[in-house]
Amino acid sequence: MTARSDGLQRFMLGLVGIGLFLGMWQVIGLYRLAGLTWPPLTDVLAFVADPSKRTLFARAITASFTAVITGYGLGVVAGIALAMLGRVATVLKPGLDRLIAVIHAIPLVALAPLFMVAANRDATPASISALGVFYMIYVAATSGLNAASAAHRDVFTALGASPVTRFLRLELPAALPAIVSGMKLAIPVAFIGAIVGEWFGASRGLGLLMVSAMQNFQIPLLWSAVLIVTASSLALFGLMSLVERLTYGRYQ
């Protein structure tokens, strides 16, 4: 079986899985198998498509996506930068590893109130998102920068390449597959961080809609917000999976 046919098969199996999940969602909601708190998928889609709710969802989506994009971008840049610093200045790497491990050990939910006090409530979603993304990218980049084989390093040394040249032309390209994989896995983390941050008092966003819907027992609104977040995360995850395949094909 060729790589192309194998990829097509996995794609089709993924579509079948999603179709089965959506079908089960519709059946469970239609026949009230999980009670009144589980609406049919068609009701949720109708609620999302309701023109009267368009402004509400547009403002919430804009706020949440701004937090996700900001947090994701900051986390990726910071993670790659510190991983490179640890690679170039090896004396700093053990300290960086321990510091980042300690920060990661602290639950993000516990840090959210601190971000609200230190910054402001509208900056909290992006901050929590960036922190979660940063750890995943740092681990992926650190692992990737060690991917180049000793034989390849020896060849560069024998040819008289400087450490900077070896880093830019060997170690960094060899690290790209791992970095892209980390970026893919960090997408759901970015959404989780933004939504959790919005739960702690953001002025708008899909997370705020979820909290408001739970408090007021607005079941269609709650499921609509969850559906939008889930669909967006899955779509971006799938897009990054394509980028990952292209990167692995080019650099591995």
Q: What composes the largest sheet? A: none
Number of strands: 0
Query: How is the CATH topology of the largest domain named?
Result: MetI-like fold
Question: CATH superfamily assignment of the largest domain?
Answer: MetI-like
CATH class of the largest domain: Mainly Alpha
Shape: globular
Termini gap? 20 Å
Give the ordered list of helices and strands: HHHHHHHHHH
Enumerate the spans where pLDDT stays under 50 for 5 or more consecutive residues. none
- Assess the beta-strand content as a share of residues: under 5%
Number of helices: 10
Rg value: 22 Å
Determine the structural class based on helices, strands and strand pairing.
Answer: mainly alpha
Helical content (DSSP H or I, runs of 4+): over 70%
Architecture per CATH nomenclature, i.e. the level-2 architecture of the largest domain: Orthogonal Bundle
- The overall pLDDT average reads 89
Total of domains: 2
